[in-house]
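Sequence in, structure out.
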Amino acid sequence: MKTFREMVAEAKQVVPEVSVEEVRERLDRQEPIVLVDVRDPDEYREGYIDPAVNISRGFLEFKIQDVYPDPSTPLVLYCLSGLRSILAAKALRELGYENVASLAGGVRRWKELKLPLAKEEPLTPAQMERYSRHFMLAQVGERGQKQLLRAKVLLIGAGGLGSPTGVYLAAVGVGTLGIIDSDAVDLSNLQRQILHRTPDVGRPKVDSARETIQALNPDVTVIPYRSRLTVENIEEIIRDYDIIVDGSDNFDTRYLVNDACYLAGKPNVHGSIFQFEGMVTVLAPGRGPCYRCLYPTPPPAGLVPS
């Protein structure tokens, strides 16, 4: 039976080690490098090398293919001292990950060089329970949940598309939801617009939407805008949001949102629906076409039913 020292020596024969200085330089140059912290979650919470993903050693072989399915992904694993990480890197190489290395000296060496470690505030016990199913997903985890809680999303429209979008974004814990809609709730809305209830008929949609969302998840801050988007106000409204979700029902607003998102460099999640058919697409400036690129001119008035 091999001793721990022998296993480490064997791993060092097949796994390259990179220095803390080299990793820091590569991060500063924004080179494609993926850091994986293989320590236990409680160690990770005490301070991690940003932007590392935490996949603890005990679950590494089970979760790595979900998070990084491409075995050519350049991975650098680290732990406290570099011992657990080099053994973990060897295990990944045996799974087919050839572009994997271990950080020599680990977090201990990082601290010796007085380099910064990121540290996030812990979730409350209620949040740990509410989002517990997310922690089972390697693509989300505790760190991803904290990113969701910091995220800001603007919903354009609190109707047939904005309602389910708002409910699900609130449920997963998106921390700030802006909702813009100038309409009031009508009885005919209620068979599909699930943000509203029968007692809300006649009320502004943004008010009933805010109450429904806050009752579902008090972690979410709702910012209502009871107005129509215009050339004059759209730039100011979208400025502080990370993602814009366009659930509008008219072409004037769709083109206005597209143009504003393009100029501001903000992702525009566009959706539309008619009867039993629908479509959704992400329009990301600089990474693909915009709405106006796909549809240069709107159709004639009255041709497309709402």
